[in-house]
Amino acid sequence: MDSADSSAFGPSELGNKQYWEKVYERDNINFKENGDIGEIWFGESSAKKIVNWICSRVKDYSVPILDLGCGNGHILLSLASNGYTNLTGTDYAPNAIELAREICTKQNFDIDYHIFDLLSDEDENIFNGQLFDIVIDKGTYDAISLNAGVIEMRKSGVDPYVRKVRKFCKDGAYFIITSCNWTKDELIDKFKE
Asked: Which stretches make up the Methyltransferase domain (predicted)?
């Protein structure tokens, strides 16, 4: 599939905020009742690969790291347990951020979480001007790609996600993305500029 061909994707409930609010509402209840942090999207193996990759290459534990669409915060918790200290997570689902904060508190880590919608929120001051050395996306671009509004924008050559992500990256930043909707070549083509 050509990465410019947005017609290859149809809208899905996975592209809707309401879907994710329900998922994390359920996960919040499960965490409170059973201590279960919820789903590790793309599996534990994928999360470990990301964390191991960062740990093997980035020895400055204070570099700013951003997880876009952090969900329950699993990746950031893993990085914190490996000594990284300047960690920020965003998600557009308030229930996800509530869950991530509760898990973080229970595990005694200091991670900064924000409710933030990449598609509609203004981003000028969300991080007080801070740019990031590492930006992580584990499935967020996939979900956004299934949003009906984004599909329409992409037909006109506009990809709001790519434009926003660039604003958060320092020059030379690492952008780590996990996707099941896009091939490696398609992702490189989308984010190469």
From this structure: 63-192
